[in-house]
């Protein structure tokens, strides 16, 4: 009896690992339902651009131990990996039970929404980084000739065009529009201050009347 029980247990293990990829994807994707809602909410409330602490790109739950114990560290890489296997691994959902399939489909939908959020956050984060780089160029330039060598005023025009386009795209999402305005416009204002004393009519900030922040 003991041998028969051991063999049955061993057979279950062999069956599981013989089809490990299917079982792994099923369990990992469905298990993400435990974290995805909180992770997406906290990620959407995080700052677009954090200069120093990598963990702050997501969030640091205060009072929960070490700063490395963040949802960014615990879930962010998982979400990236799970979205990858959803796209690239073959998976037969017909082998799932009715309830497993409902959970799996829900998890896939939430993970895809998380990926859209991550792409948007990354896009704005990169935009803020570009503005900061341009600010550093203007601080480095000590005369008009150097400003033109370093891309003035084309870089500034590109930034304003991209910003206005982004705000237009977010017109139907006022909360996100407000978040972008709150976090990105101060950087643009700082850039405008760096070129405020440059003479001539080609200063792209001269006629900037679109946003209340600059008035």
Amount of beta strand: under 5%
Question: What's the oligomerization state?
Answer: single chain
Question: How many helical stretches?
Answer: 8
The gyration radius over C-alpha positions equals: 25 Å
Following the backbone from N to C, one meets helices and strands in this order, namely: HHHHHHHH
Tell me, briefly, the overall form: elongated
Please indicate the count of domains.
2
Give the helix/strand class: mainly alpha
Q: How widely separated are the two ends?
A: 85 Å
Structural description of this entry:
The chain folds into 2 domains: 1-121; 141-215, no CATH class. 67% of the residues lie in helices and 0% in strands. Residues 52-73 have low confidence and may be disordered. The protein has helices at residues 2-18, 20-31, 36-45, 71-88, 98-140, 144-149, 154-169, 174-194.
Short description:
The N and C termini lie far apart (85 Å).
Keywords:
215 residues; 2 domains; mainly alpha; elongated
Draw up the topology in text:
Blueprint (H helix, E strand, L loop, with lengths): L1 H17 L1 H12 L4 H10 L25 H18 L9 H43 L3 H6 L4 H16 L4 H21 L21
């Amino acid at each position: 009896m003991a041998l028969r029980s051991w063999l049955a247990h061993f057979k279950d293990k062999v069956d599981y690992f013989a089809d490990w990829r299917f079982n792994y994807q099923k369990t990992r994707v469905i298990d993400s339902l435990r974290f995805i809602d909180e992770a997406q909410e906290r990620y959407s409330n995080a700052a677009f651009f954090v200069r120093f602490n990598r963990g702050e790109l997501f969030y640091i739950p205060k009072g929960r131990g070490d700063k490395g114990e963040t949802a960014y560290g615990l879930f962010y890489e998982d979400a990236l990996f799970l979205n990858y296997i959803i796209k690239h691994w073959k998976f037969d959902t017909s082998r799932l039970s009715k309830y497993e399939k409902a959970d799996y489909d829900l998890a896939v939908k939430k993970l895809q929404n998380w990926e859209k959020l991550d792409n948007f956050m990354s896009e704005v984060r990169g935009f803020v980084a570009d503005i900061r780089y341009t600010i550093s160029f203007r601080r480095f330039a000590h005369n008009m000739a150097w400003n033109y060598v370093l891309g003035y005023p084309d870089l500034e025009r590109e930034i304003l065009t991209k910003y206005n386009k982004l705000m237009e795209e977010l017109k139907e999402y006022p909360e996100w529009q407000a978040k972008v305005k709150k976090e990105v416009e101060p950087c643009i204002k700082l850039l405008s201050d760096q070129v405020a004393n440059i003479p001539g009519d080609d200063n792209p900030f001269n006629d900037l009347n679109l946003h209340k922040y600059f008035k």
